[in-house]
From TrEMBL:
Participates actively in the response to hyperosmotic and heat shock by preventing the aggregation of stress-denatured proteins, in association with DnaK and GrpE. It is the nucleotide exchange factor for DnaK and may function as a thermosensor. Unfolded proteins bind initially to DnaJ; upon interaction with the DnaJ-bound protein, DnaK hydrolyzes its bound ATP, resulting in the formation of a stable complex. GrpE releases ADP from DnaK; ATP binding to DnaK triggers the release of the substrate protein, thus completing the reaction cycle. This is Protein GrpE. InterPro entries: GrpE, GrpE_CC, GrpE_head. Homodimer. GO terms for cellular component: cytosol. Keywords: Chaperone, Cytoplasm, Stress response. It comes from uncultured marine group II/III euryarchaeote SAT1000_40_G03. The lineage of its organism: Archaea, Methanobacteriati, Methanobacteriota, environmental samples. GO terms for molecular function: adenyl-nucleotide exchange factor activity; protein homodimerization activity; protein-folding chaperone binding; unfolded protein binding.
Amino acid sequence: MLESRVAELEEELQYSAAEMVNTRQRAARERSEALRYGGMAIALRMLPLLDSLQKALDASDDDDSDGLREGVRLTFKGAKAALEAEGVTQIEVDSTFDPTNMEAIATVPAPEGSEPGSVIEVVEVGYMYYDRVLRAARVIVAEGE
């Protein structure tokens, strides 16, 4: 009786060990697939951009600058929407320099009516990825006195 119970427990242990191995293999396979196919959502959202670019190229053949302008506008709008859907947002540049999400690339004497430390010009738009800075806004800042 004791021997049969030991044999039964050994069999259960083997099944549990095999199940653990299978679970680890399945988890590794799922991780691999997630890494490989995780970009599908953004790729799918980018396809309309290719269409807009093609339309812009087609319009440029007609020597119609309005058509080209419209194609580029559609491309920009589509790219922005696709990125926003993935958590990318434009950094809103206030009048005051914020070193947490801006990079001062130059300073200039404060123009009439502007405060020292205020943003004079945005040279390159910055973007956030959810709550992290993806790319800091590159700005020109008014010098202090």
